[in-house]
Amino acid sequence: MSDGVYGQLTTPEGLHRWIGQHLELQISRRAVCPGHSAPFEYLVRSYFEPSQDMVVWAPRGGGKTRLAAIATLLDLIHKPGLKVCILGGSLDQSKHVWWHLLDDLQRLGVELNQGRSRRLQLENGSLATILAQSQTSVRGQRVQKLRCDEVDLFDPDVLEAAQLVTRSLTIAPVSTQERPGLIAPLGKQAEHQQVVRGAVELISTFHHQHGPMAQQVELARASGRPIVHWCLMEVLERCPAERSCEGCPLWEECRGVAKHSCDGHLKIDDAISLKQRVSVDTWQSELLCRRPRVRGRVFDAFDRSVHVKETCGDETAADAQMSLGMDFGYANPFVCLWVRKIGAMVHVMDEYVQRQKTLDAHLDEIQQRSGWGKITQVHCDPAGGARNEQTARSSIDLLRRRGYRVLYRRSQIVEGLELVRSALQPAWGQPRLAIHPRCQHLIEAMENYRYPDGGGELPLKDGVYDHPMDALRYWFINARRGGLVEVLRY
Fold first, then answer.
1. Residue 487 has pLDDT above 60, yes or no
2. 6-20, 62-76, 361-375: which has the highest mean pLDDT?
3. N or C: more exposed end of the chain, with fewer CB within 10 A?
4. Which domains does the chain have, with CATH numbers?
5. Alpha-carbon span 346 to 377, nearest angstrom
6. What's the CA gap between 169 and 103, in Å, rounded?
7. Any idea what DSSP says for residue 116?
8. pTM of the model
């Protein structure tokens, strides 16, 4: 076996040593959690022929993209004439693999015959390209290796078309003595041919219960294709002996294992920060890779016994602030929520839900509820900035004329949903959202706001439960940075 840059490797140990020597990376070789794989197993299965189709299920920040770039580098320099395509959930995702690959080629001093932007060819004839997420890009390709990064973001039709692009290739022996400067796949004395089997690698975090990754995991299990599956624990760094386990936010996942079994790249303090930022649902799906996000109910963590409360902290505290969350409507219900923030705690104190009245009439009703004192701040739908064709005034204009400071910014629905989830059930600490029993519309919405039966990223717009949730979502979106929001101009 050759340990040089270009000599093909014959053992997993040699592969691991090559990566450490030439790329100065140490890839974890130990599975920590029951039923999981080490990240290095992906490279072993990908590099050594005959390779085969596989699914790689790994966490956010778990090295998926970096490993895909290493696998591509090894294919290009050790298997002359090979063609590799990289197809990401978006072109930007594909470029992340590409930039790692270009950096590695430069580090090794590999000469390129052509390309850098989206296509490159080495002197040994091996070729790599990155593809956009489209039928046009995928159809007509004929390659040996297709690496699909972030499969759960794929268009299902594009993913289906991508399954048909691979073909096997017989690599003829090549000698560096015969053609100086050419990368030799099997060392100087190679005399036998090698068959590189066409293979598709599907690499992703498993986000959604009904998404593309769910289908591919199910198909792999049914057909016996390998699933290389690791989580945050397989990429966590070794925990120093002097660091105390007592009170550690990662104790539930770790139980001391990181002291002797972990040897990954992710810093413990970074892992703790990630856990403290997100909901349990996100933590378990995207970092621990235990299951996709729970579907059906949008807020599966909502529990009346936990989240419905008459009192919530010291509501007379000096830092207690009351503001309104508002969703505009006429045929659909207009919704206003009175929200009190006490430190990190959010308590929805009251609600107003009414159809078929003008905004002026709604505001009169809201201002008559004087028990909450004068409220000057409203968090609302940015669509309220659109001017009415008859009055030439917008809903936001009317709010300002009434003396309110109006906060609104454009956002994705899923962004607001995740903020609500994180407050309902943080991955670390106690719930930060409570709802007063008088808010029956909001409580019912929390329990009944659902996704379509066929799956999908966005909840149903049913005209009943979505409007109270929109009002709450707008409140969280605009409270996220303490009122420092993007102000939209219409």
1. no
2. 62-76
3. C
4. 12-229 (3.40.50.300), 304-479 (3.30.420.280)
5. 15
6. 27
7. S
8. 0.65
